[in-house]
Amino acid sequence: MIRVLLADDQALIRAGFRVLVEAADDIEVVGEAVNGEQAVDLARSERADVVLMDIRMPGVDGIEATSRIAADEDLAGVKVIIVTTFESDEYVYQALRVGASGFLVKDTEPEDLIRAIRVVAGGDALLSPSVTRRLITTLAAQHAAAPLAAHRLPGQAPSPHARHLSRLTEREREVLALVAEGLSNEEIARRLFLSPLTTKTHVSRIMTKLEARDRAQLVVIAYESGLVTPGSATFPA
Alpha helices of the chain — where are they, by DSSP H? Predict the structure, then answer.
């Protein structure tokens, strides 16, 4: 059973998500948080697998809460899906940067919500839709010229992973660049004439070397390190 925590300051939004989530036989809602601080506490006490996290909440917002969850070794298994109003939300890239595994729009279709929870709980990043990849590219371009410090925790260094790009082999750099384009392991394998198992091994080693939680962070690292530049990749429609 996948254990889901709902974090949103609007009771109506939480109630709606609860109805949708609990309609699935393999998913249950284990708690509701009205702000980021409560979300972090409940993620720990309720042993949540996935947090549906709103960004704009009073006090500790969703970005800082996501960062706290990602930085806590005791919460290493907790995955965060940012719930956003999409184009009006300029902080999605920051959320992915600090450890979110993907995002959903608040008017997501019920079946897409359930699929997203299952995908993230299974260890994958919610980066398949081309719209997600385009959003990351756009926001990376917007923020490339300035540090993203607005929601950085005290003492948190900017982009610590990007400095370790030199640890990667040439092949691993190729794989990382394709991950940043949003390609799956199978698609990368076909592009580089590798077996899916070999590709999976490369991705796992890259995540270890760059200390990344999941594929979402690999995408952010690829852009911030300059390995991939906004607009250089082509995305399927």
Answer: 11-21, 36-45, 62-71, 92-98, 110-121, 130-143, 170-180, 185-192, 196-210, 215-224
